[in-house]
Amino acid sequence: MTTSIRWLIVLVLLAGARDLAAADEPTRTPKGEIALPAPAEVQSLDVQPKTIDLIGADDSRQVVLTGVLSAGKLQDLTGHVQYKIADSTIAKITNSGRVIPLANGATTITAGYGDNRVTIPVKVEKFDVSLPINFANHIVPIFTKLGCNSGGCHGKSGGQNGFALSLLGFVPELDYQSLVHESRGRRLLPSSPDHSLLLLKASGGMAHAGGKRMEAGSDEYKLIRRWIAAGLPVGESDDPNISKISIFPEHRIISRKNRQQFAVYAHYSDGSVVDVTQRAQYESNDPDVAIVDGSGLVRTLDMSGEAAIMARYQGQVTVFRATVPLGVKIPEYQFTERNFVDKHTHAHWKQLGIVPSDLASDELFIRRVSVDITGTLPSPARVKAFLADTDPQKRDKLIDALLETPEYSYYFANRWADVLRVKRGNQQGRAFGTFAFHSWIREAIAQDRPYDEFARDILAALGDETKNPATVWYKDLRDPQQFVDDTAQLFLGVRMACAQCHHHPYEKWSQDDYWGLAAFFGRVGRKNIPVPGVQNNQQNQRVVIFAKPNGTVQNKRTNKAAIMRPLDGDEVKVDPGDDPRHRLVDWMVDAKNPFFARAVVNRYWAHFMSRGIVDPPDDMRATNPPSNPALLDALAADLIKNKFSLKETIRSICRSRTYQLSSMPNEFNKQDKRSFARYYPRRMAAEVLFDAVSQVTDSPATFPGLPRDRHAPNRAIMLPDESFQSYFLDVFGRPQRISACECERVSEANLAQALHLLNSDEIQNKLSRAGGRAEKLAKDPRPDAQKVEELFLWSFARQPTAEQMTLALRNIEHHAKNKRLAYENIIWALINTKEFIMVQ
Amino acid sequence: MFTVWGSKQHFCDGMTRRNFLQIGAFGAGLTLADMLRLRASAAARGETTRTKSAIMIYLPGGPSHMDMYDLKPNAPAEFRGEFRPINTNVTGVQICEHFPLQARMWDKFACVRSIVSVDEHSDSLVMTGYSQRANMTANHPSFGSVVSRMRGANSDVPSFVSLRGLSRGTEPGFLGISHRPFSPSGPGLQNLRPLSMVDAGRQHQRRQMMGAFDGIRRELDTNGSIGGLDSFTTRAFDMIASGGVRHALDNGREPNTIRERYRGVEQFLTALRLVEAGVGCVTLSIGGWDTHGQNFQTLRRQLPQVDKGVSNLVADLHARGLANDVAVVMWGEFGRTPRVNNNAGRDHWAPVMSAMVAGGGMRMGQAIGASTARGERPHDRRYTASQLLSTLYRSIDIDPSQTVLDSTGRPRHLLEDREVVRELL
């Protein structure tokens, strides 16, 4: 409360200034230009690299010049100073800080800002020597940078207009083959390099459907020309290979509408390091916050937030992270950190200079937490009791109570069953298995079975569905590829599928990484055993999963048996007779594993917070970094500390003040979309909304194919598999369980949903059902106001306002002869509001 | 998920393939982004030209190429079968004697006689460009789903309508379930008509209370997604009141003389009305082409029906000025064995089949490609189903080389094999 009062004061003070950001901008800076620090504000200058050694005529260095201001604030000055070079015959430096050799020798570069000066010694060697060219290391990256080998062009399978390059240059041998040997060798003319088709087409000298890709005479042109003139060398077999790329700086806090130059280095197997800033490719993950050009210059825009700039070079990736604070004066506010979650979110907001929203009211909280943990609306009695409770611990107690309800286990089993593909797929014979697997998952959740054991039970399942329901996972997945795709996406939060056929375009994963994982599934055996007494019909056969004593998986790239190797790990040897899957799980559940715990806490975070710390939650990669790495690490550590208890993870999330924030934005966090400074409202999931409508109308559902007794599931969250027909559920985006991807669930609104809620027989029948809520309330002798209040408590967990009450009572009066019609109208109006279908 | 089954189709292998009556919900494809775009374009209305559309006629079972568009009167008797070719109004093009209506107006038709197929009882290849086998893992979208994705819903009508339920070939695959066709049956259709139990007065009270009860604060809506819900609500009410889609589906609104011409093949008239109302893609089918026995007896009954349907459809497209805006294609999953079997039937034959096309601004009045003398395989101008689909995409202004992301985030071209049937464009 105090927080909002303080805002009010600030808002009043700033009244009239529509855009706070604009109001805060220094007036001395003309629009569009960067607000540079006054020379006196700069305490020192830092330059990277400290010395420059250039080798050969093709070499260059990107200088990154940083002004160190008070309180450790940093400002990029690379493009804002005058560089002086002592001997301009040795080297030159561009305004953007790129140093280019001109002749052998040594000199110095000086740059100054205010009274601060830095000097960089420069040495140029072998300028006059034609250094050997390695095709893979020097030429292929040019094709990547210029987009020649992209998936939309010559890089697509089959190439473009008869000229094929490997996708993003991952297979240089193929590229060499098609350039040098195909098309009767006319693409390259060593005797007259400038007449090579390659150079003519790429530089616009000849018609090229892909347009002009480079200037004749540019660095790229010259290098390719030199390679052609040198007789098209492949390179030596002992030439170094790239081992990684690095970036400087890795992270900066940058104000809005500012710039930051970075430099990218390729590290080779012989220990050499080459500046590839001009040759790598860049992409921003949030172009609203920051954009990047081809030379590694980042520009922040009008929005505050976080952006990750991916740098990619020869199959290696790294990221520059920009944190862009709002940069306006913020009021003092109260935020009591309740646990480690709050500590990390709060630190993040401070860095971004934004103010969290207020604490959500008890009304909003009980509805939010009940829906999020149990997929169920709280009853009016429960809401009233909670609101009346004066215990300061009542929110924690409510969380604990909800975690012990059967609805919790049903709801989470439903979510897990989605990604574990618990589906019948039109085969009635599979119902036994899907029902068994679903109930196995639900029991594991109810008992809070440690997540590491849960994963092991599924991944290393043996037996058949009557004895071990977890083997049902192996019914829907058959090939090692499917195991890799699902295991990686589901349990490691990594999407590997690309690497099956080629190097992952946005990640470091190669085909060998992919098949290394696949190899762990090489000894999975399956046998169909006929069920006695049943006709020998495939549907009724029982599948037994067993471990073969031996067995391998073929690596598609090498066509040899793949070597068992977990991601980023060493080769694993498994004795004959052992089940390698256990070795894989051992690696996964190890406390040091960087994927397993993070993947699941991030998945749970996304469930409760509408968005993952990494988002999409099952797409964790260097180039899609977490918005708050410390928070993700802390949640993972918390899970491991609690022996993989997912209930504890839920407690950690839900007890945090971060989770309990209001979704009402303030002036300072209204643009926030990934730092969780407020609760992001979302639509209820299909099953939850369906159940909520059933609850409010008091018309429990029946599903075809299930017994209609009192034990039958009458809630959509209880359904064991995907085969229960419901137009409602499908229209609101229930997944078909055809993949392990959370993305299968559609949460977007559409017109069909509106039509169904507003105007369907299904809803009208629920409203007017004999014995349903409308009829019961019509007959109920209590005063109408009390009954209207009850409906509001059911629907919104709050009291109606006076106006809303009046309107409802007026409608009841209007239908005084048949009150049921009025109650139907009121319930219809309630369930069609945005307040009803949203969780806020 | 599919527990309700649609009309049965019996095929030779004893398996009964029934059309899945899944959810084909109108409006499921109209997303918030479309809604905003619509609002934006509403201002510029009047300048927009009519968007083009397609009618895909599917003949399940595999229609006999040698008894329809590719007759071989000079082949030995056991190949040429019982039917004779007749001249069309285009010199040099002959088609089956049981297609007299098309023959009279062949200047408005074309056929491709040299398409290779795969031996699968599935509409997957001719509707998605990929075989069912490939789609088991690749999940390529149906032609109509692509239209839905590229166009969004452009008016008060759905962008993709299936008059034959749902099948693999109408599935949206990796485009997601919001691009399923609207199947005019079940709740998807019923939700479009006013509820009989609720009169206008009550509806008014309901809407008034709905607005007043909603306590959600406008300020929460930082990205427009909550406000979008209101647009859907308004639009839904408008649609129920105006009845646009229901009217398009109601052949009774056509004059009797026209309905009479479509007697027995009413779905062709419905398809016409739907594209006229602005639907981007309509698919329909006429079954019964898996003629392993009594091929000629069956076709004597079926061919006149098909002839009546397509000739009236194409004639009316011309009469209504839609011939350049609506592309029509008719084909099945494969051809049939050139040699007649012992049961006077023909069996599956994937090496070659024919397709009929019309409209879409394509070049008509021709027969493209040829099969060998006994109709066994392409002789020249060998084309694939994917290439004909590619041609159809182009004819309705969709570039088949554009990419969309599949569920793993991989960019996919609409079609990999997308050379066009040059004679048609």
Give a structural overview.
The complex is a heterodimer of chains A (840) and B (425). With 840 residues, chain A is α+β, with helices and mostly antiparallel strands. Chain A folds into five domains: 127 residues, Sandwich (Immunoglobulin-like); 85 residues, Immunoglobulin-like (Sandwich); 95 residues, no CATH class; 292 residues, no CATH class; 137 residues, no CATH class. Helices cover 35% and strands 14% of the residues of chain A. Chain A contains 29 helices and 26 strands. In chain A, the strands form nine sheets. Chain A has a four-stranded mixed beta sheet with strand order 2-10-9-6, with no helix packed on it. In chain A, strands 12-20-19-16 form a four-stranded mixed beta sheet. In chain A, helix 11 crosses helix 12. The radius of gyration of chain A is 32 Å and the shape is globular. The two termini of chain A are 19 Å apart. Chain B contains 14 helices and 18 strands. In chain B, strands 3, 6, 7, 8, 9, 12, 13 and 16 form an eight-stranded mixed beta sheet that branches. In chain B, strands 1-2 form a two-stranded antiparallel ribbon. Chain B has a two-stranded antiparallel ribbon with strand order 4-5. Chains A and B meet through helix 22, helix 23, helix 24, helix 27 and helix 28 of A and helix 7, helix 8 and helix 9 of B.
Looking at the structure, what is the overall shape of chain A? globular
Termini Cα gap of chain B: 42 Å
Total helical segments of chain B: 14
Q: What name does the CATH topology of chain B carry?
A: Alkaline Phosphatase, subunit A
CATH superfamily of chain B: Alkaline Phosphatase, subunit A
Q: What is the radius of gyration of chain B?
A: 23 Å
Task: Point out poorly predicted stretches of chain A.
Answer: 1-31
Q: Tally the beta strands of chain B.
A: 18
Helix share bin of chain A: 25-40%
Shape of chain B: globular
CATH class of chain B: Alpha Beta
Distance between the termini of chain A: 19 Å
Provide the β-strand percentage band of chain B. 15-25%
| Radius of gyration of chain A, taken over Cα atoms and rounded to an integer in Å | 32 Å
